[in-house]
Task: structure prediction
Amino acid sequence: MNTYKKTFCLAAVVLVLGMAGNASALVWWWPGTSDWATASNWSTSAVPTSADDLRIDEGNTPYAVIDANTTAYAKGFYLGGSPTDNLTIYGSLTTYSANVAIAHDTGGTSTLYVKSGASVTIGKWLMHVADKGTGTLDMEGGTWTASTIRVGSNSGSVGHIQLDGGTLNASTLELGVNGTGTMDIEAGTLILDGNDIPTINSEVSSGDLTAYGGSGTINVDYNVTNAGKTTVTASAGGSPPDQVTGASPSDGAISQAITVDISWSAATGADDYDAYFGTDATPDAGELKGNQAGLSYEPGTLSNATTYYWRIDSNNSNGTTTGNVWSFTTVVVSPPDQVTGASPSDGATNQAITVDISWSAATGADNYDVYFGESSPGTSQGNQAGLTFDPGTLTNDTTYLLAY
Result:
């Protein structure tokens, strides 16, 4: 009788041990650094594999990071016990047959960050964003592929998905199952299986699904952007700025100084302006002089008797408003009057061989080209601003010609 009991107990122990050997391993995050791929950061002193069910839920810091060079695996994982646990993914993560939950404990607060270039595939059919606590899936880029995503799964949970970039693929998205669940889309894209337009429209109406924090517009289509799927994107709210007005010089102005500056009135809603200026009647990228916040532009010294064209585009975060093309023409400069007051006078004789020549200022003249010699029109003596010229010692009994 006793022998039978001992044998039975031994068999029972063998049976229990055999069952335990078939169970997946529970592995906890016990970090010395933030690197997921460092074996000593895990309770098993080994980097997790697809057989490991992970628990990143004890508030241990530094928080885990999957860097861009890491390909990570797990059977599943719980993120977020109490008080706070976060995970940041730059590389790739694939989970298999166990649950994935963000903020799985009551009172816990957790955020899972997905960065540009990251790739996440969730193998289990159900993923929780805020299982029991407060959880956020924050996507700045990359791709996330899952089956059913529940946001705010249980009573008292508060879940949120912030889709600032990247692509979130799911069979089904459920917001606020038994708790509070919200989602906001900016530059990211949500893709769901089948026709989920009625569900999306309902979530938008309830305020649980927003664009750009509530200031934008949700765009949704079925079987258009992606065959057999519902595609959800967002457009920023607000409007582009008004068109610029108040051109100075006014459009078509003539006789403008060659040192004129251009200016304009502030456009309502504009943050800054793109200034285009040149002699091309259709200003484009070749005439772009830069972007500025100010309301004037100095083109430098211009050419006389030339028509210039300019355009000012106004910008803000919602777009660019192209301005009108304006023009003005610079002043036409008339040539100066002819020089008079020659000394010696024309045809004078018996002049000293050391005589200087002079003339009266000509109206409108800035300077003078002097020609002097024994034959017409004389040899160029250069340009000068003064009204006299010293030819040096001349030759007796010689006729000289002067022009200026």
